[in-house]
Amino acid sequence: MKIEVLPPEEIKNRVADLLSEQIKRKPTSVLGMTTGSSPIKYGIYQEWIRREQAGEISFHEAKFINPDELVGIPVDHPESYRTYMQEHLFGQLQTLRYEPQIPDGSSRDLMAECLRFDQVLADLGYVDWQLMGLGLNGHIAFIEPSNHIPAKTYVSQLFVENRPVHSPHFRSEDEVPKQSITIGLEAVMKARNIVLVATGDNKADMVAKAFAGPITTNVPASFLQLHANATIILDAAAASKISL
After folding, report:
1. Is 56 a known active-site residue?
2. Is the C-alpha dihedral spanning 134, 135, 137, 142 positive or negative?
3. Is 137 annotated as catalytic?
4. Is the pLDDT reported for residue 204 higher than 90?
5. Which of 57, 78, 218, 221 is deepest in the core (most CB within 10 A)?
């Protein structure tokens, strides 16, 4: 695990450089995406789009996959992760050839959908390069803190503190999904490269727990300490409680 501390304005370029290196190394890469505020706030996806339009990078052989999706809403709902990815990345890429793979949270048989998505991962050979964020409670993808974490894709119960972020397009917080479909630890650890971005002083305590504390299922991100090729990109505020 490598930790890099950068000025906020440099984060998008660093992530794009790492992505470009991956595509040059393996044009057919399976690229794992993430939702959340960081890719938009810091212009991460917009920089990829800019570089593609400038001819600096091409995704025509790459395949995209997202590790999670909210349960119980249509795929075209404004708060679905499929909608998020379409609006902020997929719909703006000119060289995208393959249909992105995202769990179907509207499935009537969630267990069958979990099994299907595990098969998708296996058929793709798992993820070559995975972008991640860090939840305030230490979750990665939607692997929430627990006494145990499944290895395979599963239905996760969303923690109360994670639900308000999804509320703008619902009439009330009670309508916000209480579950998600998420990959398990096996898919995380089989990803050949992971790039995690965490910023802001509100993430400092969890950064310290996750990357300088004990490895525990109560802080799922702490398992990245065991990953063979994880790069943790922080700003100074998020890194303020760890020693480098």
Report:
1. no
2. negative
3. yes
4. yes
5. 221
